[in-house]
Amino acid sequence: MKRIVSLWFPKLSTDRRARASKKDWSDRAAATVVWHEGCPRLVAINPHARAAGLRPRMRLADARALLPDLVTEAGEPQADLRLVEAIAGWCDRYTPWVAIDPTGGALAPDVETACSAGGFGGDAGLLLDVTGCTHLFGEGESGERALLADLVTRLSRRDLSCRAAMADTAGAAWALARFAERQADLFCPARGQRDALAALPVEGLRLEPPILETLLKLGLRRIGDLYPMPRGPLVRRFGDQLLRRVDQALGTLDEPIEPRRLPPAFRTRLAFAEPIGRAEDIAAATSRLLAALCRQFEQAGVGARQLEIALYRVDGSVDRTSIGTSRPNRDNPKLMKLFEERLGQLDAGFGVELMILSAPEVEAWSGTQDALPDQDSPGIASGMDGTIDLADRLALRLGAENVVRLLTRDSHLPERVQIAAPVSSSPAAEGAWRRIANLKNARPTRLLQRPELVEVTAFVPDDPPSMFRWRRHAHRIVRADGPERIADEWWRPRPDGSRPPAATLPPVRDYYRVEDDDGGRFWLFRDGPYQPAANGQPTARWFLHGFCA
Q1: How far is CA 94 from the centre of its chain?
Q2: Distance CA 282, CA 276 (A)
Q3: Between β-strands 373-374 and 98-100, what pairing exists: parallel, antiparallel or unpaired?
Q4: pLDDT by position in tens, the chain (length 549)
Q5: CA 253/CA 242 separation, integer angstroms
Q6: Residue 339 in 3-state DSSP?
Q7: How far is CA 428 from CA 16, 26, 391, in A?
Q8: Torsion of CA 137, 138, 141, 144, to 10 degrees
């Protein structure tokens, strides 16, 4: 049975300004103002302004007539949105399934959208799927009530006005949080949403304004008034939204909740009787959480690819950091070494009251492997030398995108034989690389990014070069080996269907390994055989492609 908590902040905008230590918002009547429908109107008002008779959507001129000394400020939907995001991150301490309610006006990107969404009062809301999480506060219904009370109490300490309701469906919890008259009605027992919703106004069904106006004109003011009515006439009169909302609230139609962050596959938490702040205590708690999480990995037969540690501080803020691994890993000491690289970046603030360790990404465990596979023997570790551990530590310091390995590719072109790939990538399948394995010693140890044009002198056009000039420096060749002819991969598709320019990838290349009189060794190629041109000059060109050891 699902259990959903709807968290409503009816005065989010005013609470945010009061929390910012703005004296006028605590001691005097104040409101936020936006330009809407051709005139400035009030959006959010504080308790002093409400006691004076002001209401949201009221024109500023009318409000000034009632309260000349009203303090006003421009509305800031983006600032309200950032506060809601921060509260949602804090609510992860109760459940990993937290969604921002899209019906709140504070969530709109601009004022006009906020007004049209019906959230003109500067409010906002969250939806929490606490299914399976209430046992942390007690067994059965007592644990659910304790979680609800703890949630409201902690938010009230942060000077946030809120109402929280729990029910089996998001629609029922949403309606109770906003329209329940008694505090006791905010908790709906399991399978009790039909009776709990019957006395609530139809505004609790989250309907469009035209549908609400028509229902009120027809005298259908309570949700219970819709229960005995035939469904066919309701669909013909109001469309499918009315019955869909009723069915979602009663639980006969599923209403999915999309979390703001993907829930982790595994997670464990540790609460402290007294807040901790020393780095040694945080490291010890991380080690304890990691040991518990690794036991979960062993039972499930998986290994972690990404881990995240979250510190929930006493001031309501949250600090997070994460690590990644290049292979599935469930070795507690090795994972703790990776966390030691990041724990120093965490700030305990005034103290940490809760820590949660989660695994957002896991993979099936395929056995123990501590080293990268050897190129000559794919799948067989080249010694237990801790290469994987080193790669993981480098990825933490330099960034995962900056730690790569070279993999062979099924190609005979020198510039395509190897490719830079993430360190976690598997070796390429055997192919052309195996067929030219006997030429590995003949290939250069370093290739230029682009072949560079050189001037070559040869005794006979088809003979190896006797001298070449590169970058204004002449090299006299004393030894030469070749040619090795390499043709273009004509079967490889091109984006435009044509061959690349001959200066970078000629159709046919004749490669020579040469050594000059200074001992330098170079890899030269000619772009095809010599062919006499109309003016009697040869058309073949020479390029320097790399350097041999």
Answers
A1: 20
A2: 7
A3: unpaired
A4: 899 999 999 888 888 888 876 666 778 888 888 888 788 888 888 888 888 999 888 899 999 999 999 988 888 888 888 999 999 999 999 999 999 987 754 444 444 444 444 445 578 999 999 999 999 899 999 999 999 999 999 999 988 989 999 999 999 999 999 999 999 999 999 999 999 999 999 999 999 989 999 999 999 999 999 999 999 999 999 999 999 999 999 999 999 999 988 899 899 999 999 999 999 999 999 999 999 999 999 999 999 999 999 999 999 999 999 998 888 999 999 999 999 988 988 999 999 999 999 999 999 987 654 444 444 444 434 334 467 777 777 877 777 777 877 777 777 788 877 777 777 666 555 554 455 544 545 678 788 888 999 999 888 877 889 999 999 899 999 999 888 888 877 776 655 555 555 444 457 888 999 999 999 999 999 987 777 665 555 568 899 999 987
A5: 13
A6: helix
A7: 56, 67, 19
A8: 10
The C-alpha torsion from 504 through 506 and 507 to 512, rounded to 10°, is -120
Cβ distance 322 to 308 under 8 Å? yes
Identify the H or E element spanning 285: helix 279-300
CA distance 61 to 444: 82
Beginning with the edge strand found earlier in the chain, give each strand of the sheet holding 71-74 in spatial order: 39-45, 30-36, 71-74
